[in-house]
Amino acid sequence: MRGRFPKMDKPILSCEPRSLWELSKRPPPNGSEPGFNRRSSPNHWDSTSQALADIGRSLPETMSLREILRPKNASDFTAGLIAGGEVQSAIDIGCGCNSHLSQFRPRILTIGIDSDLVSIRLSKERGLHDHYVQANILTEDIGSLLEKVGLPRKADLVGLYGVIEHLPRHLGFELLRACEAITNKYIILETPHGFVPQGPEYGNPHQRHLSGWYIQDFEALGYTVHGTTGTRYFRGYMAEPTLRFPGGTICEELATLLLGINSRPQHAFNLLAIKDVRGVPARHAGAPVILQPQTTT
User: Fold this and answer.
1) Going edge to edge, which strands form the sheet with 155-161?
2) Neighbour tally for 135: CB within 10 Å
3) Among 11, 47, 155, 202, which is most buried by a count of CB atoms within 10 Å?
């Protein structure tokens, strides 16, 4: 299940350059306004106004304040990894009707892997990836299968979006190990925070959720964990918002913003975990220290 930040017909506030530019041209306060600090530097208002004007000129005309404040989603975190320039190829495990990796083609080469032929056929029809491999990553040697179709055994990035929760936990850990075997740089995954019940939706028995995953599960394996897809307090079945009164979506988005789910995943509906399989680089230079075994006399 791949949740998305809810969309509204109209933005909460418009933050067009012209409005900020007009704000920057307002005259400075005369000292009678509430909250005016008479001890401030005389140039404080001018510098603030100039900063607002610079921000205004840098924003696209169609960008709203809501879009600026929107927390990052899985696509944003994926884009951050690719922007570093280290990722030239990526594997999408469990490819289907959509993929967070497709938007980065042709900048990177993408490979879809799935054990279900119907899912691969659907992905091909939508042109989501450059190459496809039908295989079960838990039971088959993916590296050898990639070599057979003229591809490297490992990719720079492996994406595991909305997959691991469809497996029992013991198989989920095996899946993570299998993913590490086919990447030489990064793994990125997204999954619901904790166990979220879900049945065989759309007639697909593989849509059933069989396990729940928590922050400590991934941190213990060396992943950095973030939060996505709104708060876990106001999301329900298949990540649908539970505040169904007028204005409920705005309330949920404000809660998401105030709780800072990207950096505080304990409040998020989905967890997004990233691991660099190369490990943490050394922080201290110098020759390694070799300890000699002690001898007793």
Assistant:
1) 131-134, 109-114, 89-93, 155-161, 183-192, 268-276, 224-231
2) 17
3) 155
Query: Which amino acid is residue 297, in one-letter code?
Result: T
Structure tokens at 240: 């649908």
Helix%, strand%, coil% for the chain, nearest 5: 35, 20, 45
pLDDT one-digit tens code per residue, 69-90 = 889 999 999 999 999 999 999 9
Say which residues have a Cβ less than 8 Å from residue 260's Cβ, sequence separation at least 6.
71, 267
Which residues lie below 8 Å from residue 30, measured CB to CB, with a gap of 6+? Answer: none
Could you tell me the two tokens for 83?
Answer: 């922007």
pLDDT value of position 26: 42
Six-digit token string for 70: 């929107």
Peptide bond into 241 cis (omega under 30): no
Q: Which residue has the tokens 């925070």?
A: 193
With tokens 């083609």, the residue in question is 105
Q: Three-state DSSP class for 159?
A: strand
Q: What architecture does CATH give domain 70-276?
A: 3-Layer(aba) Sandwich (3.40)
Report the distance separating Cα 261 and Cα 241, nearest Å.
16
The whole-model pTM stands at: 0.75
Q: Where in the chain is the domain with CATH 3.40.50.150?
A: 70-276
